[in-house]
Design a protein that fits this description.
There is one protein chain. By secondary structure, the chain is of the alpha+beta class. The strands form five sheets. It has a six-stranded antiparallel β-sheet, with no helix packed on it. A six-stranded antiparallel barrel has the order 4-11-14-13-12-15. A four-stranded antiparallel β-sheet has the order 8-7-5-10. Helix 2 packs antiparallel against helix 4 and helix 3 runs antiparallel to helix 4.
Amino acid sequence: MRRSLGCSLAGVGLLLFAGCGGGTHEAAKGQDAKAGTVNALPSREVRLARAETGRLSRVVTVSGTLGAEEQAELAMKVAGRLETIAVDLGSPVRQGQVIARLASTDFELRVSQAQNALEQARARLGLSAGEPDRVVAPEQTSVVRQAAANLRQAQLTHERSANLFKQQLISRSDLDAAEAGLQVADARYQDAMEDARSRQGLLMQRTAELNIARQQLTDSVLTAPFDGMIRERKVNRGDYVTVGQSVVTLVRVHPLRLRLAVPERDAASIRVNQPVKLTIEGDPQEHSGRVARISPSISEDNRTLLVEAEVPNQDGRLRPGTFARANIETVSAEPTVLVPLSAVVSFAGIDKVMGVEGGKAVEKRVRTGRRTGDRVEILEGIVAGDPVVVTPGNLVGGQSVMVAE
């Protein structure tokens, strides 16, 4: 009985040994087959590039709102009834273009009235028609010349009366009358001088009034202060508008200002003239701009830095008030290892590059980082100076390769 049991156990052992030996043999055959398959692949010609050290552009992603470069509420400087309005909502305008015009009759009458008053003032100073306005010396005016002549006559009369009184040819009362006449003449002369100066001041006043009337006539026409588009029209033809009442809202749409709130952690990397790429809702096109202005301080409320980017908008495709997502391209301060983007092969979430050792391709697993243009950052797996295959395609590890010069 024991002999039979021993024989049975021995038989089982032999079977197990035979099974294990068979599995090892099959695995070895699989490896040999794989090696044979790789060796059977034709030799590939490849082009190599060396991993290099460089600084990679970094992108700060933020959102903001597009705003007009300039916006103005255009209003009349004078009151009157609106005769014409030449624009409407969305109308493009050029600098100096007429926006609206008041009825000019009242303003033209005021100019005419001021002109007539000025001519009267000129005539009182002795200025002839067509003669340019100038400062007239008081002694040159007729009223002063007349007073001067009367004063001279009174002086001569007084002198003669004084001589005659010395000769006792006239009475004291006659001499007193001559002195009184001299004083009256002198007072009239001073009054004439003051009147002449007053007439000169009146001339200047009338000139200013005429200029004001002319300016009011000019101000009865509203023009655009800059190129832009009409955002809102607030009055209609026939309305009576008061001084300062808004007529239209004008916005400059080229370029636009993109206001961005950059988080404090990224604020140190923002510089003027850095490129900005932005997209808006409903527009697949990517638009470009540049950082134009940076706030000098961080907002204490939300710990962000206010940044304004300038975005060209010649075709008017972008509209003020639109929400935009923007990427600000900055330069990393730390150097990193870079390889061509085409050298990295990704499969099942694993990134690798192909190197060359001893005339055969060698797989190297890597961990990638940021990508920009045609380069990618390598965080682990290779170091600067390592050669990598530029375009590995379906190249496999162990395959024979020839390096192209």
